[in-house]
Protein NRT1/ PTR FAMILY 5.10-like isoform X2
Amino acid sequence: MSFQIPLTSTAVRSSDQIPVDGDPLLSSYGLGLLTLSAVFPFFSSSNCQTTDNADACSPPRLQVVLFFFSLYLVAVAQGGHKPCVQAFGADQFDPLDPIECKARSSFFNWWYFGMCGGNIVTISVLNYIQDNFNWGLGFGIPCVVMCLALVIFWFGTLTYRFSSRCDKISPFVRIGMVFNKAVRNWLATSVVTSIEETRVQCHQDSQENRFLNKALLAPDDHSAEDGQISKINDVEAAKGLLRLVPIWASCLIYAIVFAQAFTLFTKQAVTMDRSITPSFRIPSAALQSFINVSIVIFIPIYEQILVPIARTITGTPSGITKLQRVGTGIFLSVLTMAIAALVEKKRLEIAREYGSADVPNATVPMTIWWLVPQYLLIGISDAFTMVGLQEFFYDQVPREFRSIGLSLYLSIFGVGSFLSSFLIFVVEKTTGGKGEDGWISDNLNKGHLDYFYWLLCGVSALGFMTYLYFTRRYVYAHCGKVI
C-alpha cells in the first residue's frame, strides 16, 4: 500500500507552499464541542435528576444549541475535507510518469479502502461505546484521533510536493469570464477576429461546445490587450467542465439506488427476525456494515488480482478505463435492485402466510440474513462506481479544479438522496390514497415494496443505457489535451 514518489523537475518541495489543512482543524473543533456538550455536568438539567418521567426531562437550551452547532461545524468541515484530501493525495503523483500514473490509480483504491475500514471500526466499536458507556467517550475518541491525524499531516509537510501555479487569477473567475464573454459576443452586432481565435482554428480540442469559441473574439471597439478576450486554455477548461455534465447527470440514478441501502433496506430489516441468540438481536442498521465489509474485502482482490489481469489484456494502466469501471458498478446496482425485489416478494409471502400482514409491528419469521446478499452486492458496486467516479472527476478537470471535480462527484450522491426522497414521496402519493396503502406503507407487510424495487430496477436499467450512450461519445482529456 506504500507509494514511493520521487521528486521531479515538475514538483516543488517547499514548506512555504504547504497549505494549512483547516478542515481537519475545524472537524477537531466540532468534535471537541460535541464532547463538551456530552460530558460537562453543568449542562445536565436539574429536572432530570428529580423526576421519574423521562418525557418531562429535556436538556437545557444551551446544551441543545451547542450540540447542533457542533454537528453543523463537523458537516461543514467534512464538506471541505473530503474532496480536498483526495485531490491533495493524488497531486503527489506525477501523471507524466508511467509508474506514478499506475500508482495514482492505486491510490484511489487504497484511499477508499481505508475510509471504509474506518467506517467498520466506527459502526462496530464506537456505536458500542456510545450505547454501553457514554456519549462523551464516544465523541471524545474521534476528536483525539482527528487531532492526531492533523499532527501527522503537519509533520508530513516536508515530504509533500506540489506543482507550481503560474496564474494568480481564480479559476472560478476565469471560467466565469469565458461564459460571460461568449454570451456577450454572441449578442454583439460586430466583432473582430483576435489572435486567439486565429490560433483556435486548428486547435484539436475545440470541436465540442464550439459556441464558447466566441469568448475568443474581440469586440470591434476593443483590442486584444484590454482583457476583453479569453485565453484558449480557459476556453478549453470551460469546455471540459461542460463535457462532464452528461456523465454527472446519468450517474444520479445510481445515487438513488445507493440511498436505499440506508433507508428502505433498513426498514425491511426491522420487520424480520434479527435474533442471533435468545438474548441478542442484531440492530437493523448494523447490516449497513456489510457494505463496508464487502468493499474492504473486494478492493484488495480488485487491485492485486483483477487489475493486473485486465492490464495484460487491455494495456490500460488501471486495467479498465474509469468510465468502464463506473459502468460496471451501475450494472451491478441493477442486479442489486432485482435481488432486493425478489427477497421482498418472499418476505411478503411469508408475512401473509403467517397472518402478519395486518399487524404493523409483527416480526416476520424470516431471518435477516436474507438481506445480506443485496448489501454485499451494493458494496461491490460501490467499490466500482465510487472509486471510478473519484478518479474520473479528478482526472478530467483542469488542474486548479481538481478539488471542485471531486466535489462534483460527491454532489452526485447528495442530489441523488434528495431525488430518492422525492421519488418515494411521488410513489406514496400515486399508489396510495383514499385510505388504501400504497407500495411504500408505514406497515411494510401491507405494502408492495417489491414493486418499488422493480421500478428502481427498470429506471436503473434505463439509466445504465443512457450512461452507455454518453460514455461512447465522451472523449477523454489527458494532461490538458483531449484524446
In short: The chain has two domains: 20-41+60-162, 170-185+227-476. Strands lie at 191-192, 218-219, 272-273, 275-277, 280-281, 364-367, 477-478, 481-482. The chain has 15 helices and eight strands.
